[in-house]
Each structure stands twice: as structure tokens, then as C-alpha cells.
Specification:
Elements: E1 20-24, H1 28-34, H2 39-60, E2 64-71, H3 79-103, E3 106-110, H4 118-131, E4 138-145, H5 147-163, H6 173-177, E5 190-193, E6 212-215, H7 225-237
Parallel strand pairs: 1-2, 1-5, 2-4, 3-4, 5-6
The structure holds farnesyl diphosphate.
């Protein structure tokens, strides 16, 4: 565990940690290009880094890590690249099934899995089923995910339920949240975007209403636990008011 954290409570636990960290995995292609490698090599390194950072998050006591691995717009990429990313996701999930008994990481895929191959869908089902009993740390992988798409689907599903008399009364934020892919998951406290861009790119649009944003030029494959420590330190220095005032 990194030494950067100084605030501990009487029980020796770290305080002020974000409960939920969301990360846009950006910069894989540039990482590969800088090394004269094909873009897919960057995705390989990016998926290995997801493994490292997820383990680190679990070890320091973060409860949820959500990563943006493939967006609803990423299908526009060359078919070889899409295929390589899907293959990597399959490999990751396959390995996750093997190591779950040891790692105790609860896994969830957020997104429209109906567009995925039958093999990948069955791996998604398997990983989610095996790991659902684990608690303490949950890794969410956003796959064929788009924030607008998620909101439209949630609204349509609610309208359908209302038309069928399955729900009644006013639609509240809480009820709406329960129709999202992220139902039951607290909103991200900290959103990190490596890779130098400073935009949200259709990621967790509803859920990030009050998240703290942190951007860095470091490319995702180069993003280390030390970089995560820095992001958490910045997060801890922020004054979160959720629209209120501090000392009224
Ligand atoms: C964005 O970087 C990255 C992606 C669209 C793919 C991310 C996918 C993985 C890391 C593989 C599987 C993930 C897991 C969680 C097992 P980019 O390629 O657009 O980077 P660039 O801006 O440098 O081109």
C-alpha cells in the first residue's frame, strides 16, 4: 500500500477515500504508437493495467471501480481493433472465472450485452453469477455502454412498466436510478480520465452529476498505483458541496 495516505482513523483505517472510482481507459493507441507497436498492443497493456489498478483499489479499500472499456460508439473502429478488444475482454473474463475463488472480486458488466457474441455473453453471465456472492470490492466493466443509450433504455423500460401497471406514482430520481445498468451501485465519487482529453465521452452521464473529475496526460497503460494515489489526494482536497454551501 502506498505511503502517501496519512489520514487514518483510530482503527488504523484510511479515511476520506472515494468509495467509487470510475476511469475512462484512454490512451492505449498512443501508448502503442509511441513504441512503434500496433494499437492492439496498447489494448493488451491497457487490460493488464486494469488488473493491476483493480487489485490496488481493492487493497486500499475502494469499494467500487468502474471502467469504460468499450462504448456504443467504439463499433466505428476498424473491425480488427474491435475484434482484438472483444478478444481481450473474453480473455479477461475467462481468467477472472479461474481466479475468482482467490480474488473475491464481484464483477458486473454495464451495457447492452445483447450485441456481444454468444461466447462473450455466456462468459459475462458466468462471471456475474459466480462472483455475485462476494462483497467488499466490485469491479464494473462498461461494455457496449453509452450514457445516453442507458438513459433512453431506462426511460423506455419505466414507461413500459407504467403502461403495464407494474409501477405507479411519480418517477423519482431513486426509481429512475433503479432502471439504469448501474442499479444498486452508488454514484462515482471520483472520475479519472488519463490520456490528456478533458471530456466525458458519453460515460455515466446520469451517475456523474456530482462526481469530482480528475484529468491527467498520463496514458492509461502507464497509469500506476502512484498516479491513482495522486488522483485520490487531489480528490481529498476538493470541497464537495453537492450544490449546498459549506458554512451557511
Ligand atoms: C481507448 O483508448 C481505449 C479503448 C476504446 C479500449 C479499452 C479496452 C481495453 C483496455 C481492453 C479490455 C479491457 C478490460 C477492462 C479487460 P484509445 O485506443 O482510444 O487510445 P488513443 O486515444 O491513444 O487512440
Amino acid at each position: 500500500m502506498a505511503a502517501i495516505f496519512s489520514k487514518k482513523n483510530a482503527a488504523g483505517e484510511l479515511t476520506g477515500l472515494p468509495r467509487h472510482i470510475a476511469i475512462i481507459l484512454d490512451g492505449n493507441g498512443r501508448w502503442a504508437k509511441k513504441r512503434g507497436l500496433p494499437r492492439t498492443a496498447g489494448h493488451v497493456e491497457g487490460s493488464e493495467n486494469f488488473r493491476r489498478i483493480a487489485t490496488y483499489c481493492k487493497n486500499i479499500g475502494v469499494e467500487y471501480l468502474t471502467v469504460y472499456a468499450f462504448s456504443t460508439e467504439n463499433w466505428k473502429r476498424p473491425p480488427e481493433e474491435v475484434g482484438a478488444i472483444m478478444k481481450l475482454l473474453g480473455k479477461y473474463l475467462h481468467e477472472a472465472v479461474d481466479t475468482m475463488a482467490k480474488d473475491h472480486i464481484r464483477m458486473k458488466i454495464l451495457g447492452d450485452v445483447s450485441a456481444l457474441s454468444p461466447e462473450l455473453r455466456s462468459l459475462v453471465d458466468k462471471t456475474e453469477k459466480i462472483s455475485q456472492g462476494y462483497d467488499g470490492f466490485q469491479a464494473n466493466i462498461c461494455l457496449n455502454y453509452g450514457g445516453r443509450d442507458e438513459i433512453i433504455r431506462a426511460a423506455s423500460r419505466w414507461a413500459q412498466d407504467a403502461a403495464e401497471g407494474k409501477v405507479s406514482g411519480e418517477l423519482t430520481e431513486e426509481i429512475f436510478s433503479s432502471y439504469l445498468y448501474s442499479a444498486g451501485i452508488p454514484d462515482p465519487d471520483l472520475l479519472i480520465r488519463p490520456g490528456g482529453e478533458q471530456r466525458i465521452s458519453n460515460f455515466l452521464l446520469w451517475q456523474c452529476a456530482y462526481s469530482e473529475f480528475y484529468y491527467t496526460d498520463t496514458l492509461w497503460p502507464d497509469f500506476t498505483p502512484n498516479d491513482l494515489d495522486k488522483a485520490i489526494e487531489v480528490y481529498r482536497s476538493r470541497d464537495r458541496r453537492f450544490g449546498g454551501v459549506k458554512n451557511p
